[in-house]
């Protein structure tokens, strides 16, 4: 699976969401992602333990499930109880433990809610459509990403424009365009700093920080 999707999804889903392990360093996350990519297969799940303060550690079990139709899913099970808001002693798949699964298609890795079947593309805004093309499972949509971004950048609304600029950065990361990545990071830094008084930018700032973290992971070469 492409490192772009691994670093995007697994960092956000296994470290940031639910405040599971937000203080993890790029080195910590990179080590875990390398292990997942190296060892997890249909026949070999991987169990990971991350030490946490208190008497309960953070447990993750990564597995690949091959369905009868040949479809493969990468599944992340954890011992985080979404109901009790705490780490359980062990992973309990039958209860309310936090779980994520991703559809694998060649080098693509797609979260279930990013599947093309989950959205009516005709009803999406142009920036949302560009993002959908970037993360859905359909490789034929990849060639439409940049032209859709270009169209979305014609929007004059500040938040919409910055959101699209962030998608542009993601696309540069996907393409491994090092020079464009640096220029886009610098541009977004300036753009966000100039408009930092706008309270509507808080969510975008968080997403931008996560994307800069992803760049560090990609530079660490998790292959």
* Rg: 18 Å
Envelope shape: globular
Order of helices and strands: HHEEEEEEHHHHH
Helical percentage: 40-55%
Termini Cα gap: 10 Å
List low-confidence stretches. Answer: none
Assembly category? single chain
Largest sheet: 6 strands, antiparallel
Structural class: alpha+beta
Number of helices: 7
Give the count of structural domains: 2
Number of strands: 6
Explained architecture:
By secondary structure, the protein is α+β, with helices and mostly antiparallel strands. It folds into two domains: 111 residues, no CATH class; 104 residues. The chain contains seven helices and six strands. Strands 1, 2, 3, 4, 5 and 6 form a six-stranded antiparallel β-sheet that branches. A hairpin with a 7-residue loop joins β1 and β2. It is globular and about 50 Å long. 29% of the residues are buried.
Quick take:
The protein is of the alpha+beta class and 223 residues long.
Tags for this entry?
7 helices, alpha+beta, 223 residues
Topology summary:
Layout lengths: L2 H14 L9 H14 L6 E5 L7 E9 L5 E10 L4 E2 L9 E9 L2 E4 L14 H10 L9 H8 L5 H18 L2 H17 L7 H18 L4
Antiparallel strand pairs: 1-2, 2-3, 3-4, 3-5, 5-6
Helix pairs in contact: 1-7, 2-7, 3-4, 3-5, 4-5, 5-6, 5-7
């Amino acid at each position: 699976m492409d490192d772009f999707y691994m670093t995007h999804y697994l960092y956000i889903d296994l470290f940031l969401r639910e405040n599971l392990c937000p203080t993890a360093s790029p080195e910590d996350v990179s080590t875990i992602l390398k292990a997942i990519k190296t060892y997890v297969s249909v026949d070999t799940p991987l169990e990971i333990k991350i030490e946490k303060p208190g008497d309960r550690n953070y447990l993750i079990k990564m597995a690949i499930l091959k369905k009868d139709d040949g479809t493969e899913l990468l599944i992340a099970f954890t011992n985080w109880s979404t109901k009790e808001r705490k780490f359980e002693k062990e992973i309990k798949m039958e209860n309310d433990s936090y779980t994520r699964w991703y559809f694998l298609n060649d080098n693509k890795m797609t979260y279930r809610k990013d599947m093309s079947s989950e959205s009516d593309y005709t009803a999406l805004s142009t920036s949302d459509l560009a993002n959908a093309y970037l993360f859905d499972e359909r490789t034929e949509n990849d060639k439409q990403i940049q032209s859709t971004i270009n169209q979305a950048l014609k929007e004059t609304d500040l938040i919409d424009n910055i959101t699209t600029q962030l998608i542009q950065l993601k696309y540069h990361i996907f393409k491994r365009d090092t020079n464009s990545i640096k220029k886009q990071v610098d541009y977004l830094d300036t753009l966000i700093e100039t408009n930092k008084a706008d309270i509507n930018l808080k969510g975008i700032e968080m997403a931008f920080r996560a994307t800069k973290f992803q760049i560090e992971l990609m530079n660490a070469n998790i292959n």
